Backbone:
């Protein structure tokens, strides 16, 4: 399989971004706060949390493609759920490419767990 320069450059960019994130393994078991949003509604900011890693990948793909219908389907099906910025979370596990598995500690989704990009948690 031949890798083009563009594909290689994309791979390098993703790796650099992932390595630039806070090391998830040092945060496992600690609490954090959702600090950035990827959606806002009614003046409030939310982070969309995925119920599993596959859904997080689907979300990222839809977001990159500007696929509003795909994003709406993920949200309306409950596979993505909104959590207010400022909500406390517990880091359950770190993953590849800057992904965290978190448990929501307060608010409407307290007790639920899901996956979120690590850059959205402080």
Residues:
């Amino acid at each position: 399989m031949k890798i083009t320069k563009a594909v290689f450059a994309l791979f390098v960019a993703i790796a650099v971004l992932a390595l630039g994130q806070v090391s998830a393994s040092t945060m496992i078991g600690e609490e954090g706060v959702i600090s950035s949003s990827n959606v806002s509604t009614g003046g409030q900011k939310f982070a969309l949390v995925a119920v599993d890693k596959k859904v997080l990948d689907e979300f990222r793909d839809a977001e990159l493609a500007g696929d509003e219908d795909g994003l709406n389907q993920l949200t309306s099906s409950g596979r993505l759920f909104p959590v207010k910025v400022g909500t406390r979370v517990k880091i359950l596990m770190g993953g590849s490419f800057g992904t965290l598995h978190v448990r929501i500690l307060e608010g409407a989704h307290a007790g639920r767990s899901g996956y979120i990009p690590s850059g959205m948690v402080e």
